[in-house]
Design brief:
The complex is a heterodimer of chains A (about 425) and B (about 425).
Chain A (H helix, E strand, L loop, with lengths): L3 E6 L20 E2 L3 E2 L1 H10 L4 E5 L5 H7 L14 E4 L2 E2 L4 E2 L4 H7 L1 H6 L4 E6 L2 E3 L3 H11 L3 E7 L9 E5 L5 E6 L8 E9 L1 H8 L6 H11 L4 E5 L4 E3 L3 H10 L26 E3 L4 E7 L4 E2 L2 E7 L4 E2 L4 E7 L4 E2 L4 E7 L4 E2 L4 E4 L15 E3 L4 E2 L4 E3 L3 E2 L12 E2 L16
Parallel strand pairs in A: 1-4, 1-8, 4-5, 10-14, 16-18, 17-19, 18-20, 19-21, 20-22, 21-23, 22-24, 23-25, 23-26, 24-27, 25-28, 26-29, 28-30
Antiparallel strand pairs in A: 2-3, 6-7, 8-13, 9-15, 10-13, 11-12, 11-13
Helix pairs in contact in A: 6-7
Chain B lengths: L6 E4 L20 E2 L3 E2 H11 L4 E5 L5 H7 L13 E5 L14 H6 L12 E6 L2 E3 L3 H11 L3 E7 L9 E5 L5 E6 L8 E10 H12 L8 H11 L4 E5 L4 E3 L3 H9 L27 E3 L4 E3 L1 E3 L4 E2 L2 E3 L2 E2 L4 E2 L4 E3 L2 E2 L4 E2 L4 E3 L1 E3 L4 E2 L4 E4 L18 E3 L4 E2 L4 E3 L3 E2 L17 E2 L7
Parallel strand pairs in B: 1-4, 1-6, 4-5, 8-12, 14-17, 15-18, 16-19, 17-20, 18-21, 19-22, 20-23, 21-24, 22-25, 23-26, 24-27, 25-28, 26-29, 27-30, 28-31, 31-32
Antiparallel strand pairs in B: 2-3, 6-11, 7-13, 8-11, 9-10, 9-11
The chains are: A alpha/beta (about 425), B alpha/beta (about 425).
């Protein structure tokens, strides 16, 4: 696998993840109680013995940079340089924001060619799955295709979320359709591709923007052999609030399809040194994933708690994802919610209060309440279902100590208190 | 005070009173506090105090210590200059031999002071649990003009016979030093933390090495001798928590003490992180029907049954219907369905098969093989032991490391002993 270069597309900031991605890329969103979304792909690369990884970044990359560092957790900090973070750059002749994933690759094509990889593996940093890329690469080489697209079966009613691939019996991929209302095929494009560099290079010269529209479809039109590789395991695109929430909760249910515990394929991340989980005398924890550094004196059910979360006595956290160092004070209740890091939920406050708001404009939240990082929910305040509390929000954003279902407050800059 | 710092850490201790826990590892490598090893406290004290040039002296069964320290990465001690160096006993040096006492061990490594531009030498023990900013000790040392400063802590009167006991005048100058006295007028115990003036240390160690009557130990001869002849030795009174986890009982009690609120020592202080070597493990998974109470549970554990007043190290599984009560369970041990641990210390990689019950019945019969260490009702199970389904193990029993299931023909009675295979060496 030494001659394979992986390119991880991690530049996106999904609008559909709202406050969670206002200040970070989707790939950098915390996941599974101690990980970030991109850990899945980087761990896959590490265990698949891929030693050269380029990460293409653009949207709010700071927390991604922080997380990846020199790539040590994934053994990418080796001599010869395993990790390249490829950011948009200026030249004398052009200002190069990336206008899509294919454009991001195109703008770095000189650098990619310099490394003379035998194969290019193009991945999305926004997906949650465990996959041995070696099997994919073997199938690609054996088929002699110019490009291979990994596909996974999805139920027909889900086809609207995905690009769907038509696959022949012999494994050839003949058509790609973006988010069709009616599914003609069970196979969704996973956004995992293998390319022969020369074949991709030809498309790159045409200044493509999108991989499906400007790279794969023209390849098919030009008669390039494109194969599909069917992947059987769990795979989820966590780019929406609902899919993100369900994928997290998947890990706490019985017989999870998403296994975080496999010693043969450990999920690798930049770990912080925190003490073991402390459980108080009246703690109740059931169907939960709770990371080191947490302290639980209250009740936690069907929830994922990241490092350093405190749940005080008499507090209740159910059906929730609670990120790093968030504090839930005594008697507070959190239901059907995603709380970002360093949130303070004051005593007796309620997050996820009342009924789910009617109206299609709220449907995308699937009844979940979102609390942006560093927000303070004042003691006794009530935050309705499918409401969004902005980053750094405080008492002034919750007049009367209440935010009704479906309401939204703005984000506040962190330096507001300083200036 | 000079800028450069250097510390020797004595990590060769046998910890013989820890029984099975240190049978196959040095005392500093004994797991402690739910995810740490005892040495982590001293190493973290060093790096948190800005000391990143360390020589660690090993002798007794160093393998698991070496594995734990590795390149020193968790402590940021994997450095181009300085960092951590393992100083093992060796052949071909001025005196080729084992280390004979703490002073002898440092004497044989004096060469490491040769080119270091330091004015003081810190000598630490790797056997204790405490958080200490050594800068305070350096400042005290400099202000007193001492040749040697000994950090001391107050111990209860009944405990003086377990420690080196110092008498000091109001300025802190040491006027008496007795190693493990039966009775003493002072309750100031040496913590095994010494700061020496570099040249004094060299002079005193060279002198001590030539004394044939000396046992070449800091506590037994060297420091008492220096005090007796009026050398400037000072005592620095350390006000905070310090624990010598010397015996099985104190090991058990001091681990469980961390379940109290507040704990005796804050492990969750972002300004004084206790660093350790952690494997990549997922968060703790509490399944449906899990019941937990006042416990400390590390990443990688899976809890389906009941856990009360216990400490679980990474990767422990407590199956459905199993109960872990008042126990300490180390890495990757598996407690099968319906299994039960009551007041047990269980080492790593043990399998408690379905329905096996550990810690039952009468607690008044001391252990047959080591009654002096194992009589308070605890059960100790060595690393890698396999307990067959349905087995019962009485209190004060000792199950050796790597005991296989076929070694059990019957229930293990209170105070019973089941020995595992002898270590190859």
């Amino acid at each position: 696998m030494r001659q394979v270069m992986a390119l991880v597309l991690a530049g996106g900031g999904s609008e559909r993840l709202s406050v969670l991605t206002a200040e970070r890329a989707v790939s950098a969103v915390p996941f599974g109680g101690k990980y970030r979304v991109i850990d899945f792909v980087l761990s896959n690369c590490c265990h698949s013995e891929i030693r050269q990884v380029g990460i293409l970044v653009q949207h709010a990359p700071t927390s991604l940079h922080d997380h990846i560092g020199a790539g040590r957790p994934w053994d990418l900090d080796h001599r010869g340089g395993g990790l390249m973070v490829l950011q948009p750059y200026l030249t004398r002749s052009h200002a190069g924001w990336y206008h899509g994933p294919a454009d991001a690759i195109a703008q770095n094509w000189d650098l990619i060619e310099e490394h003379t990889p035998e194969r290019l593996l193009v991945l999305s940093g926004d997906h949650v799955y465990r996959m041995d890329y070696r099997a994919l690469l073997r199938a690609h080489v054996e088929s002699g295709a110019g490009a291979t697209v990994a596909v996974t079966r999805v139920p027909p009613e889900q086809s609207r979320r995905f690009g769907m691939a038509t696959v022949e019996r012999d494994g050839r991929l003949t058509a790609l359709e973006e988010k069709p209302e009616q599914a003609r095929t069970p196979f969704a494009n996973m956004g995992v591709y293998v390319f022969e560099p020369a074949v991709l290079g030809e498309r790159i010269r045409e200044r493509p923007m999108d991989i499906v529209l400007d790279v794969l479809r023209p390849m098919l039109a030009a008669g390039v052999r494109v194969h599909a590789y069917a992947f059987e395991g769990y795979w989820e695109d966590v780019g929406t609030v609902g899919s993100y929430f369900r994928a997290n909760l998947e890990a706490v249910g019985p017989d999870p399809r998403l296994v975080l515990h496999d010693p043969a394929w450990p999920l690798l991340t930049r770990d912080e040194e925190r003490p073991p989980v402390m459980l108080g005398g009246h703690a109740v924890v059931e169907d939960g994933l709770v990371a080191n550094g947490c302290r639980v004196d209250g009740t936690v059910r069907r929830a994922v708690l990241f490092p350093g979360v405190h749940v005080a006595a008499g507090a209740e956290v159910e059906d929730a994802v609670v990120m790093q160092d968030t504090r839930i004070e005594a008697g507070a209740r959190v239901h059907h919610a995603i709380l970002d890091k360093c949130v303070q939920v004051g005593e007796r406050a309620i997050v996820g209060w009342g009924e789910v708001p009617a109206g299609p404009e709220h449907a995308w939240l699937e009844g979940l309440t979102l609390i942006g990082k560093d927000a303070t929910i004042t003691p006794g305040a009530r935050i309705g279902r499918a409401a969004i509390v902005g980053i750094g929000a405080g008492a002034a954003d919750l007049p009367g100590g209440e935010l009704v279902a479906g309401a939204v407050t703005g984000n506040r800059p962190w330096y507001e208190g300083v200036v | 005070m000079s800028g450069a710092r250097y510390a020797f850490i004595l990590a060769g201790g046998m910890g013989s009173r820890l029984c099975l826990l240190s049978e196959r590892r040095a005392k500093p490598a004994v797991p402690f506090g739910g995810k740490y090893r005892i040495i982590d406290f001293t190493l973290s004290n060093c790096v948190n105090s800005g000391i990143d040039d360390i020589g660690m002296l090993t002798q007794y069964r160093p393998t698991s210590l070496h594995e734990h320290i590795g390149t020193g990465r968790p402590w940021d001690l994997d450095r181009s200059r300085g960092g951590i160096q393992i100083l093992q006993p060796s052949l071909g040096t001025v005196r080729s031999d084992w280390y004979h006492g703490t002073a002898d061990a440092i004497f044989r490594n004096l060469v490491h002071l040769r080119r270091r531009r330091i004015e003081e030498v810190l000598v630490l023990s790797g056997d204790h649990v405490y958080k200490m900013d050594y800068n305070v000790l350096y400042a005290f040392h400099a202000a007193s003009g001492a040749g040697a400063t000994v950090a001391v802590t107050e111990v209860p009167e009944h405990a003086v016979s377990g420690f080196g006991i110092l008498e000091a005048d109001p300025t802190g100058r040491v006027t008496g030093f007795q190693e493990k006295p039966r009775r003493a007028s002072s309750r100031l115990a040496s913590m095994g933390v010494y700061l020496f003036d570099r040249d004094c240390l060299i002079r005193w160690l060279v002198e001590d090495a030539e004394l044939s009557i000396s046992s070449h130990d800091f506590g037994k001869d060297l420091l008492p001798r220096l005090v007796a002849r009026g050398e400037p030795v000072y005592a620095y009174r350390f006000p905070d928590y310090w624990q010598d986890v010397g015996t099985l009982d104190s090991y058990y009690e001091s681990n469980l003490a961390f379940l109290a609120m507040p704990p005796p020592l804050n492990l969750d202080d972002p300004d004084w992180v206790i660093h350790t070597q952690s494997a990549d493990r997922p968060p703790v998974r509490f399944e449906h029907g899990a019941r937990v109470e006042r416990s400390m549970i590390a990443n990688g554990c899976v809890v389906q049954g009941r856990v009360e007043r216990s400490v679980l190290f990474p990767g422990v599984t407590v199956s459905r219907g199993a109960e872990v009560l008042d126990s300490i369970v180390m890495h990757d041990t598996f407690v099968g369905p319906g299994g039960r641990l009551d007041r047990a210390i269980v080492d790593k990689d043990v399998i408690i098969a379905e329905g096996a019950r550990v810690g039952t019945g009468d607690g008044s019969i001391p252990n047959r093989a080591c009654p002096e260490h194992l009589s308070s009702g605890l059960v100790v199970i060595g690393k890698g032991a396999r307990l067959p389904a349905g087995l019962t193990v009485g209190r004060n029993a000792r199950i050796g490391a790597f005991v296989t299931a076929d070694r059990f023909t019957d229930a293990v009675p209170a105070g019973g002993v089941v020995d595992g295979p002898e270590p190859m060496h």
